[in-house]
Each structure stands twice: as C-alpha cells, then as structure tokens.
Design goal:
This protein is an alpha/beta fold. Helices cover 29% and strands 19% of the residues. The strands form two sheets. A seven-stranded mixed β-sheet has the order 1-2-3-4-5-6-7.
C-alpha cells in the first residue's frame, strides 16, 4: 500500500493510541501502517518501522506503553517498501539495533531504489545487518519466530509466525502476512517498471495458498485495513481476547487469493487477445 498525499502532508492525523494485541505483542503503528512491538523478555523486537514521517508517533507509542525504545534489540523489515522501512535507519541509529531483511528485497532495493519508495515521501536509505534464514527461526528471549518467504507483493516479502503465551500458560498462535497488496501486479505498475518480473503474480498466488491453511489465532495485519473487520473497527476493549478469531486469517488470505486469481485471469485473456 502506498500513501496518499494527505498522509504525507499531515501524518499526525493518522496517529493512534498504542494497544496490546497478545500477551507480549503491541500495536505501535498508526492508522495507515502497522508496526508491532514484541517483548521477548530479553529485549524488544520491532516488526516494521513505518515512514520516516511517522517515526515520532512510533517512539511515543512505545514509551506510552511503558517501554524504552532504546531496549529494541532487533528491527525486522517485512518487505522493502517505504511505508514499512522509511523509519528503519533513524531507528537503527537511535537504538543501535541490527536490521533484518530478506536477501531478495535487498536485491530489489539495489536494483532500483524507485521500487522501494514509489511515491514522493522522504526516503532515508539503510543498510541491513542480517538476511533472514528461511531454514532457521529468529530467536530472542522467549520468542521463536518462524520467517516464511512469501514472494508476490515484492520478491522478498516475508511473513512471520510464532506462539505467544500468557502467565497462565494460554497459548496464542500469531501470524503476520508481510505484504498482500496487489498494487505491484497492476497494469500501470508493470508499464512503469518494465523490468519487474511478471512471474510475481504466480508467486503471489502460491505464497497465499501456502499460508492459507495455517492456524492463526491472532492476525497482525501489515496495514490495519487488511483484515475484516479492519483493526480499528474491533470492539473497543483492553481485553486481547477480542482479537482471537481464526477466521480473520483465512478470510483475509482468501479475499486476496480471489483478487489475484481474477487479475491472473484478466491478464491471460488480454494475452490471448480475447479482450
Ligand atoms: Zn505497505
Ligand atoms: Zn508494500
């Protein structure tokens, strides 16, 4: 998802209160883009760093929850689009935490930086410290995070799965699908970036299918409007049980799968000259 002009001109209008979504997981993003703070018991992990323009919201949200942003020990990037990594370098400098990203999206970034920031927002480049190893989970403290390569939205989009547990031993399976926008498969995008691999639409479909049957108790949307209901339309409550709903994950992916299949179909019809 890319930003509207209003978002860039008046980012404070998208600010929101941070809130808890699982025993050790907190929403610290804004009304446009998700960022998730995980308390591992041995330091904090931050998945996605938002825009540079909204970094001050993010820092304030972390502090309002009672955490110190300087306790962040790892910055994980779901995919290399500016709405998810525009603030990465500033946070890396502030916290000293290393940055993780996929090898594939770093290659995309090095190939053409315009593929990373598609609009006219501030772009502050960064260097990663590590690439994800898809054969090995990312581990810190109590967190054992499975990193799954789910290409499609970008070549190196990654999704994250892990189990969180409360003080009574109740377990919650967590899922974050790294990028499910079809904007990078649309005709106007392909026209603008002719080197963009067309095969990514097939990858998108395969990636969704590979994750669709996973059991996810709590879905963490990379953008709050990706779930139904949208994240901000859930009943207002401090109780995390409001987010426990296994249908949310499968419904979100099913909807995207149908959109992708329709796009594939229309692309095929066009190629066959029947449109
Ligand atoms: Zn996005
Ligand atoms: Zn994106």
């Amino acid at each position: 998802m890319m930003s509207s002009n209003l978002f860039l001109q008046q980012p404070w209008r998208y600010a929101c209160e941070p809130f808890q979504m699982a025993p050790h997981v907190y929403y610290v993003g804004n009304r446009d883009v998700g960022s998730y703070l995980i308390d591992t018991g041995a330091g904090l992990v931050l998945i996605d760093q938002g825009y540079a323009e909204t970094l001050y919201h993010l820092l304030e949200s972390i502090r309002r929850l009672g955490f110190d942003p300087r306790d962040i020990r790892a910055l994980l990037v779901s995919h290399a689009h500016v709405d998810h990594c525009g603030g990465t370098r500033l946070l890396k400098e502030y916290t000293g935490a290393p940055v993780w990203i996929s090898r594939e999206d770093m290659a995309m970034y090095q190939q053409d930086v315009r593929l990373v920031h598609l609009g006219n927002e501030n772009w502050i480049d960064f260097q990663p410290d590590y690439f994800y190893d898809y054969d090995r989970p990312f581990c810190m403290g109590n967190l054992v995070l499975e990193v799954v390569h789910t290409p499609g939205h970008t070549p190196g989009t990654c999704s994250f799965f892990w189990t969180d547990q409360d003080a009574h031993g109740e377990k919650y399976r967590m899922g974050l699908y790294g990028g499910i926008g079809l904007n990078t498969q649309q005709e106007d995008f392909l026209w603008q970036y002719p080197d963009w691999p067309k095969s990514l639409l097939g990858d998108f479909i395969r990636s969704i299918r590979s994750c669709q049957n996973r059991t996810v108790d709590i879905t963490l949307p990379s953008h709050p409007n990706h779930t139904a209901p949208a994240l901000f339309d859930w009943p207002a409550s401090r109780d995390i049980s409001r987010f426990v709903n296994r249908q949310v994950w499968s419904n979100m992916l099913q909807k995207r799968l149908e959109m992708a299949l329709a796009l594939e179909n229309s692309r095929r019809e066009k190629e066959n000259g029947s449109v």
